[in-house]
Amino acid sequence: MEAFPFLGDLVIVVTVSAGIALFLNRIKIPIIAGFLVAGALLGPHGLALVRSQSFIEKLSEVGVVLLLFTIGLEFSLQRIKDIFRQAALGGLAQIVLTVFVTYAIARSIGVSASQSLFYGFLFALSSTAVVLRALAERGESDAPHGRFIIGTLIFQDLCVVPMVLVIPLLAGGQSITEGTIQITYAMLKAAGMITGTFVLARFIVPRVFAAVDASQSREIFLLTVICLCLGTAWLTSMVGLSLALGAFLSGMIVADTEYGHRAMGDVLPLRDAFLSLFFVSLGMLFDGRLLVEKPLTVALLLAGFLLLKGLLATLSAMIMRFPARVAWLAGVGLAQFSEFGFVLTGVAVESGLAGQSDVQPVLTAGVISICVTPMLLKLAPHFSAGERILAPLERLLGVKGIDTLDKAGPHHSIKDHVVLVGYGVAGQRSAEELKARNVPFVAVELNSKNVRSGRGKDFPVFYGDASSPEALRHAHLHKARLMLVMINDPQAVYRILDSARLVAKDVPILVRTHYALDRDRLMKAGATDVIVEEIEAAHAIVRKMLAYMD
């Protein structure tokens, strides 16, 4: 008799997943797709080789928790404060638009009002695990579209709680009064949990880690990190919030201490192992038979996720006055099913709001949408058709601000100036130095907070998308003596270089990049010189080292 039946299933899952992922990776298909395919092959709708599916699903939840913890490590409380406006307004606009449009479409084809609202909930949520991982791998978490996506995902996770509580009301299992009381109570608990997070981050956690660090034991440090991560996730689940949100909050707690980078290095191997099981477990929900039995239904639902939902997310970003390129990339990033959608479907089936046959086509289309998301995120920056379509709406909403330079009095005839692309830390320091030397300059920035900061100093900082030739013409790049590119969106840099060379072939362009491997590619793309942070940091370290040795 097999003492641990789940162990054989785990061996099968790991072996098949590694093999398929390796094969797909060699033909340039994202590894996530390999895990999803492995899950579909091994699951109950495939070869049914896994008997302990529930055990695999439990392990996969640990992967999601660890993923959100590591993402939280990159988002301190201050950074969350900076994107709060995008999270609250952009997330609200995206959810309201998606729920409303989905509800209207479902009602028009004869679906009941309660079920229509439920489907609106399903389509409104996006995959936190898949999208955040893809953004992190591509280095786009701090890019304008990345910040909007992350803010929206945070807001969506907060909305999971009331959605779960509303579904039994829609099924008629609770009275409106009882449901309202439960929702209010849950939101109060959520507010209390978030407040407690701030208290822990400020007063308790730093002291705990200082004591642990004094022990000089790597094992104790790792156990403390895991305890904080899983413990916070467990506490949030006890008050009705999602495990993922709790893990994200615990990551932010550690990010505000000096031990964040060490925690990241220790947790990454565990995260990657468990997260692979998460994607396999998602693939197990895929029912390939529906592609034969209901191909049109699955195709329409998939189009709803990828096209309609993406369009509504794009519109939400444009309502927040993001340029067309940022809105287009944000729409692609949010156009898929959510892992929390599986939670909502489970509640709906259990409460009698929907049958398994009703939700299975949605789950199948949803798994496909999750599978193709990494590929779409990779391809989206190379397609400008979506941006051109959005251009009229961009002008209608008054998104761009760089065109006001032509009407800005003394700046109208600006020439022999420096064009700064990006007004972050490096951009601000460059602007201050240019101002001190009486060198005219123009800064183009997509972060509205940075624009307001520059305007507060009476600097010529304008809101605009430097990857647009039109924006660069408004900045009079063709009359400039120099252009500096200092942004955190690696893919956008190449588009900016292409546009800059269309507008001004001979203007020198200095580009900042993180990695030495990118230098040659940037030079070929049109950069005159490249400042590599890796190399500059190495030089600084060597100088400091020699100074201490003298």
- Helix and strand pattern: HHHHHHHHHHHHHHHHHHEHEHEHEHEHEH
Q: Which quaternary structure do these chains form?
A: single chain
CATH architectural name of the largest domain: Up-down Bundle
| Strand count | 6
Q: How is the CATH topology of the largest domain named?
A: Na+/H+ antiporter like fold
Tags for this model:
Rossmann fold, 6 strands, 2 domains, six-stranded parallel beta sheet, 24 helices, 550 residues, single chain
Question: Could you explain the architecture of this structure?
Answer:
With 550 residues, this protein is mostly helical. The chain has 2 domains: 5-393, Up-down Bundle (Na+/H+ antiporter like fold); 400-549, Rossmann fold (3-Layer(aba) Sandwich). 70% of the residues lie in helices and 5% in strands. The chain is built from 24 helices and 6 strands. A 6-stranded parallel β-sheet has the order 3-2-1-4-5-6, with helices on both faces. Helix 23 links the parallel strand 5 and strand 6 (529-532). Helix 3 (53-73) runs antiparallel to helix 12, helix 6 (113-124) packs antiparallel against helix 16 and helix 8 crosses helix 9. It is globular, with a radius of gyration of 25 Å. It starts with a helix and ends with a helix. The mean pLDDT is 79.
